[in-house]
Specification:
By secondary structure, this protein is mainly alpha-helical. The chain contains four helices and no strands.
Length: about 110
């Protein structure tokens, strides 16, 4: 029974990873691709590692450390890459409605 639960959780993680890869292929610009990839791979990796941890309990402490590492570093690195892309001048897609970072930059210029 435990192996079935572990397998289902691992399969759910693999599904998240697959959907994240589909999001990377389908999204219109680099910022949307980055968001789809980051959110799905964070959840997919965590679920896959939890499933492996349930299947092999002696690995669970090390897997929890990996999960925490992924939980903290994946969103931070995605944020840093998105800001770097924005400052490098990579444009949003035409269907994007707002650019909050650009709005913040123009407010800072007016305040100075």
């Amino acid at each position: 029974m435990i192996m079935l639960i572990a397998s289902l959780i691992t399969l759910l993680g693999a599904l998240f990873l697959f959907l994240g890869s589909m999001g990377v292929l389908r999204m219109p610009d680099v910022y949307n691709r980055m968001q789809a990839g980051t959110k799905a791979t964070t959840m997919g990796s965590m679920l896959s590692l939890i499933g492996v941890g349930i299947a092999t309990p002696e690995w669970l402490p090390k897997l929890i450390i990996l999960i925490l590492f992924i939980l903290f570093t994946n969103p931070i690195s995605s944020h840093a890459l998105a800001r770097a892309a924005h400052f490098a001048g990579i444009k949003l897609t035409d269907i994007s409605l707002r650019d909050n970072l650009k709005d913040d930059e123009t407010e800072e210029k007016h305040d100075a």
